[in-house]
Amino acid sequence: MPQLLPAPASGVPSPGSVLVSRAVEDVLAASDLDGWEAWDALWLPRRPFAADDPRRGVYRMSRRWALARELLEANCAGMVNLVVIDCDEPDAELRGLSARDSHALPNLIVENPLTGRAHLGWVLAEPVTTTDYARLKPLNYLTSVLEGLRRATGGDRDYGGLLTKNPFHPRWNAHHVHYHRYSLDELHAPLASSGSMPEPGWMRRRAHLLDPSGPGRNCALFTTARRWAYREVRHHFGDPAGLEAAIRAGAAERNQAFSDPLPAAEVRAIADSISRWILTRSRLWRQGPKAYDQTFHAIQTARGRKSGELKTAQTGQIRGRVEREAFGWER
Predict the structure, then answer these.
(1) What is the CA radius of gyration of the chain?
(2) Which of 30, 152, 160, 161 has the fewest other C-beta atoms within 10 Å?
(3) d(C-alpha 61, C-alpha 41), whole Å
(4) Do 172 and 213 sit in the same domain of this protein?
């Protein structure tokens, strides 16, 4: 059994805090010790968000008090090590366990016994950073795998991933299925074999960029903010502080367009990562306005050439069709 923190030293605890403390003691006393130790090792937030009813407020609190709540923050800010799918179907547990030739078996299933709906969780062997532009490839991979798991289990597309069902709360039925920690490749393999993985380029589609969910919000914000930031550079040559402030403001504005925005701290971290990349590694920033103008001219020239080639091909196709239909000619 884990060591609980002592009661606050200052004064007599309030009746409310005593009730919460007893609730925590009851939760842990009724829990499976192996399950608790596994959860305590994989659950990383030090001061997690937690709530019983999110409509009445979600607040940060100590891990001890959070264990008395129905819903807990699943991952640390800026990091994902617990992949969670919200399955709103009445046979959610069966969907999670019916993994043969479909998807990897989840580590954890936390079910609402009244409705059958459940959160399905997979533990990662290596956490994935969600706010570092230099590690965007693993984040994109995670987002694609998460979408594949959602499709394979029929999960809710609009689930944001911030809160997950507390596996030790008496309201839920929790099943600790196994303790293996997955690599992204291990999660990807059965999804690819079953055809559940999203098609290449799906994250660049406008519909996804405008209203993503889960870690996809981080990817979408990186994509839209960095594209805008590359153009914004021309207004801030020689003024790195001005560029950093502009990118922060631009990222915050784009985040607010999401139906489920990212926390402000995470948006700041993403903006600062983009700024750091531009200021330390971008050729445009190092070489100044002249390089920017040359690059812009090269891009416009390439676009014009591509557009001209496309128009020529379309004109040839139209002329050929007219000749076949009007004169019976074959080109």
Answers:
(1) 25
(2) 30
(3) 18
(4) no
Please say whether the beta carbons of 169 and 224 come within 8 A.
no
Strand order in the sheet with 71-73: 59-60, 49-51, 71-73, 163-165
Task: Tell me if 269 sits within 8 A of 284, measured CB to CB.
Answer: no
pLDDT at 37 over 80: no
Q: Look at strands 173-176 and 79-87 and give their pairing.
A: unpaired
Q: In the numeric block, which tokens belong to residue 225? A: 């903010």
Q: How many folded domains does the chain comprise? A: 3
Within this chain, do residues 242 and 319 fall inside the same structural domain, yes or no?
no
Instruction: For 226-239, write each residue's pLDDT tens digit.
Output: 989 988 988 898 89
Segment (H or E) for 253 = helix 240-256
Contact call for residues 60 and 33 (beta carbons, < 8 A): no
The answer to whether residues 45 and 194 belong to one domain is yes
In the listed set 164, 198, 232, which residue is the last one of a domain according to the structure?
Answer: 198
Q: Which two tokens stand for residue 87?
A: 């399955």
Query: Domain residues for 300?
Result: 291-327
> Domain for residue 84, yes or no?
yes
Find the CATH number of the domain harbouring 251.
1.10.340
Quickly count: other Cβ atoms within 10 Å of residue 213's Cβ: 22
Q: Check whether residue 95 and residue 64 sit in a common domain.
A: yes
> pTM to 2 decimals?
0.73
140-149, 212-221, 243-252, range with the lowest pLDDT: 212-221
* Cα 199 to Cα 187: distance, rounded to the nearest angstrom: 16
Query: Which string of b and e fits 21-42 if b means at least 16 CB within 10 Å?
Result: bebbeebbeebeeebbebbeeb
Within this chain, do residues 83 and 225 fall inside the same structural domain, yes or no? Answer: no
Confidence at residue 202, expressed as pLDDT on a 0 to 100 scale = 82
For 291, the token pair is: 């390089």
